Amino acid sequence: MTDFKNLEDIFNDSDFEKLVSPLKPKEKKVADREVEKFIEIVDWVRENNGHEPQKSRDIKERSLYSRLNGIRKSPDSIRKLEPYDEFGLLKIDVVESDTPISSPTSLKEILSDELFESVNSAEKSLFDVSRYKRTIQARDKTRTRKRMGNFEDYQELFTHVHDEISEGRRQVRKSDVIKEKEIKPGMFYVDNGVMVYVVSKGEDFTDKNGYTNAELHLVYENGTENEKALLRSFVSNLHDRTRHGRMVTELIDDVMTGISPSERITTGYIYVVKSLSSNPQIANISNLYKIGFTEDQITKRLANAEREGTYLYAPVQLVASFEVQNFSARKLETTLHHYFADKQLEVELIAPNGENFVPKEWFLVSLDEIEEAISKIGLEISVQ
Predict the structure, then answer these.
(1) How far apart are CA 188 and CA 163, in angstroms?
(2) Which pLDDT score is estimated for 18?
(3) Where is the Bacteriophage T5 Orf172 DNA-binding domain (predicted)?
């Protein structure tokens, strides 16, 4: 060891420069989400004896199947992920294409998916829209909608109508036979998947093409309004099969619906719960809800929440529930899970026995969004 008598000896030492030179920054490892998702596919293939994920009824396998197809359609992704491809999953003919993977973009696509092919004949009729025929060429001439400032005055009205539809007191019928003179204030319609309320109808006038027309004040369930919608354009939209226009009937008796109270069969319940877990990984997340299904009483299903992984081994609080009649409650749950697939919680937790587990059916979504989705899905089912 060298003895230093003064500071000058220290400064002149051959190792001094090394001691004061700045440390080289450690190389940071940046997590690549695309690589992680591909490795998840590789791990699945390894666990399944080299078999690729297929378009099965298992939601996880189906998700991995779609993800793998998406990667195969991207030459850039193939080149990037090739070093991790130990099973040769990406060794296929690369076709340059700008067309992305076809994934569900609407409730109609989800409801028409192969996942629902197993429904019985009574349920299949709910999805049969072949009887609706296009009779008029669509012409979208509606004037600009705007956000309403007093939508709360109408919101409860829409809620009541949805309740009346689910109770069988109203029906949702095809609208390709609606005539312009039948559009009246106080009536409800469905245009492009959104319920519409006709607030008022102005005086008739002759438009530039010589047709009798009128201005309508329309309020939409999404909180927008059109105070100067043209009657002929609105009817044209309702007749356009691509916009799935429908008419909501006025209140009718049970005898008129063809479904008596005794024929309204409850198939189960959809429930929404929030976790009361003290685990920081869960407790610090806002708008985290589990969407579940049960054929039994909900309170009975939640009784053992603290002992079940599906409830994160913690107590839960019931925040909403929905009784499902004359349609498979289980398939409604599956539809909701598909609808919110991009908002599913992705976290790995530790069970009481020390094993890791990934919870399912938990979504980062607001309660309002869940209720809106259930309302939309119920409307889709009603009009098919």
Answers:
(1) 14
(2) 57
(3) 283-377
The residues pairing with 230 across neighbouring beta strands, listed in sequence order, are 215
Q: Which amino acid is at 79?
A: R
* Cα distance between residue 14 and residue 115, in whole Å: 74
Strand ranges in the chain using DSSP code E only, listed in sequence order: 146-147, 172-174, 188-191, 194-201, 205-206, 212-213, 215-220, 224-230, 246-248, 266-275, 288-294, 316-325, 349-350, 356-357, 362-364
Q: Could you tell me where the DSSP H helices lie in the chain?
A: 7-12, 16-20, 33-47, 59-72, 75-81, 107-111, 121-124, 152-166, 231-239, 254-257, 280-283, 298-301, 329-339, 367-383
Q: Whole-angstrom Cα distance, residue 383 to residue 243? A: 12
Residue-wise pLDDT tens digits, 350-365: 888 888 888 889 999 9
- Choose the weakest-confidence range: 36-45, 100-109, 240-249: 100-109
Q: Where are the domains of the chain?
A: 27-103, 146-257, 265-383
Question: Among the listed ranges 308-312, 335-339, 374-378, which one has the minimum average pLDDT value?
Answer: 374-378
Q: Is the pLDDT of residue 221 over 70?
A: yes
Q: Residue 335 above 70 pLDDT?
A: yes
- How does strand 188-191 pair with strand 146-147? unpaired
CB 291 within 8 A of CB 272: yes
What is the DSSP code (8-state) at residue 285? -
CA neighbor of 37 nearest in space, from 74, 88, 77, 76 = 77
171 or 287: whose pLDDT is higher? 287
CA distance 229 to 78: 50
Asked whether the beta carbons of 376 and 107 are under 8 A apart, the reply is yes
> Mapped to the 3 state alphabet, what secondary structure does 61-83 carry?
HHHHHHHHHHHHCCHHHHHHHHH
**Contacts of 311 by beta carbon, 8 Å cutoff, 6+ apart:** 273, 275, 290, 302, 305
d(CA 278, CA 29): 31
Contact present, 200 and 282 (Cβ < 8 Å): no
Bin 86: left if φ > 0, else alpha if -120 < ψ < 50, else beta: alpha
Closest-CA residue to 381 (of 335, 339, 320)? 335
Burial (0-12, 13-18, 19+ Cβ within 10 Å), 275: buried
Q: What's the rounded Cα separation, in Å, for the pair 328 and 121?
A: 12
Q: Are 273 and 221 in contact (CB under 8 A)?
A: no
Is the CB of residue 236 less than 8 Å from the CB of residue 221?
Answer: no
Q: Which token pair is 172?
A: 């949702």
